[in-house]
Amino acid sequence: MSGGILIAFEGIDGTGKSTQLPLLAAYLRGQGYTVVETREPTDGPYGQQIRLLYRNRHQASPEQELELFLLDRRQHVEQCIKPALARGAIVLTDRYYFSTAAYQGAAGCDPAAIFARHGFAPEPDLVLLLTQTPSESVTRIRELRGEMLNDFEQQEQLEKVAALFASFTHDCIVRIHAARTVAEVHASIREAVAQLLAQKGTQCPR
Ligand SMILES: Nc1ncnc2c1ncn2[C@@H]1O[C@H](COP(=O)(O)OP(=O)(O)OP(=O)(O)O)[C@@H](O)[C@H]1O
Ligand SMILES: Cc1cn([C@H]2C[C@H](O)[C@@H](COP(=O)(O)O)O2)c(=O)[nH]c1=O
To answer: Which residues bind ATP (predicted)?
Structure first.
């Protein structure tokens, strides 16, 4: 396979992205593909600064927050995504620039302007947009961590984020209903990826 394939997992908090991404990675590796698993925010210096905002978001203005996500993504694209695509890998990223348009859009920045600032970032071949209601997400997060919701996970905030995700009309987006069992969601994801690989005429290496 030459040129690589970029697949982004997107959706509001708690939709199961971090659960589903390794399942898809294991499945694809079992089929003989080279897979790179990655995520944003990254563990790099800007990603670490972003994590400091989770419990105290008002430390930064929406514009400052946006700049941090852009800096983190530039580094991610240059150091991880582009090299992996050049090696012909399937890159699976847990969040990408659709999250910025939705979350920083919900915080007051202009989503269209955010998309326009991503000329440096390769367009994904597929965005798996996991969907469920914000109240379903909040229930899952509470089951996982008790009552503590961080500043990005407050239900009112997630309602705005979910509305923005719902408004995106990019051809690369496939919506996957996430309020089902892990196995059911995985099956839908495999179906969407199989269609992409067939469209690309990608021969399974095995
Ligand atoms: N289909 C599912 N049914 C029930 N619980 C699930 C399902 N998928 C994931 N979970 C659980 O929901 C919680 C959140 O899942 P996960 O961390 O994968 O979501 P996420 O979208 O990556 O969240 P975040 O964006 O906040 O990191 C975890 O406790 C996980 O075990
Ligand atoms: C990439 C990106 C992320 N966010 C927000 C969305 C989530 O609330 C956190 C990341 O948490 P996760 O549990 O590691 O998924 O950050 C954002 O606001 N803007 C972005 O571009």
So the answer is: 11-18
In the three-class reduction of DSSP (H, G, I as helix; E, B as strand; rest coil), residue 9 is classed as strand
Q: How far apart are CA 72 and CA 45, in angstroms?
A: 8
| Residue 110 located in a structural domain | yes
Distance from the CA of 102 to the center of ligand 2, in angstroms? 10
131, amino acid identity: T
ipTM over 0.90: yes
Q: Domain tally for the chain?
A: 1
Question: What is the C-alpha to C-alpha distance for residues 10 and 13, in angstroms, rounded to an integer?
Answer: 9
Residue 120 within any structural domain of the chain: yes
Residue 191 has pLDDT above 60, yes or no: yes
Tokens of 142: 């509470």
Domain with residue 127: its CATH number is 3.40.50.300
- Residue closest via CA to ligand 1's atom 6 equals 16
Q: Which residues pair with 35 in a beta bridge?
A: 90
Note whether residue 41 is domain-resident: yes
Q: Taking the CB of residue 148, how many other CB atoms lie within 10 A of it?
A: 10
Q: Is 108 annotated as a binding residue?
A: no
Summarize pLDDT for 109-141 with one digit per residue, the tens. 999 999 999 999 999 999 999 999 999 999 999
The residues, ordered by sequence, that sit 6+ positions from 114 with a Cβ below 8 Å of its Cβ are 66, 97, 100, 101, 104, 105
